[in-house]
Amino acid sequence: MRCEEVFSIFPNILKEIIREMNVDTRQIQEIRIRAGRPVLASGGGREYRSGQTLAAAQVGEILAYISNYSLYAYEEEVRRGFLSLPGGHRVGLAGRIVLEQGQIKTLTEISSLNIRFAHEIKGCADGLFPCLWKGETLLHTLIVSAPGYGKTTLLRDCIRQISDGSGGHAGKTVGVVDERSEIAGSYRGTPGNDLGLRTDVLDGCPKSEGIMMLIRSMAPEVVAVDEIGGRDDIAALTSAMRCGCVLLATIHGSAMEELYQKPELEEMMEQKMFRRFVLLEQGRKPGRIGKILDEEGCEVRVI
User: Nearest Cα to 57, choosing from 28, 85, 73, 36?
Assistant: First the structure.
């Protein structure tokens, strides 16, 4: 589902606000809706601001409309703070957390929505792809960037090229653990984005559990995940590497120094388990590469 098609499932009040802001829908990246504050949209290096605000009841109505008045059907996603739309687009949620025995049970009184648009850009990894190999060996790679700089977009195209085969390299079997349904853009179990003909997707599953599940069930040569974080994620990734799988992952960060300061990454960094680090920088085009470094921190290529 393209951005223009997503707008078709918006209620009229939101459509009118977007028209009033004169947003370039071809480049839009996100729309932020907060009760009592102006609606903001961003894309193409610009921020657009609405002249009107929405009440909490209107925010709730927008969410109900987008979910086809069946928010209960998204109970598990709401508990995790988001709602998936066809095509990999996602609505982030913020409100009041309800706890049960110390665990998050659900999210209520939702007052903020962040509609994030997925952009499938085939070929955006063309310049990076040759740097991921040493001869015929695909290298463990970590894509590093701050939020919103296109790391998932770049990861998606890397997966596609590895799976289909590119640049004289034969295609490989890829297993994707898509915890938040953003990489494959799965909707009700069916991927909406092109991840290649040799790719299997485990949708909506925590990385810490899904990685080993995929290895046992689908025997991938490459394991790909987005936004690694806690110690459980790192432990699963380490196990995948030791099983002989090549790892392709992303992480939040703006510089190599930040990676060394993350306690959960200490062992991986000390043992130089990743062989390529791809650092993204802000730009009008998602996935803009600043530097590509090897495990010693030496620059491989500047784009």
Answer: 36
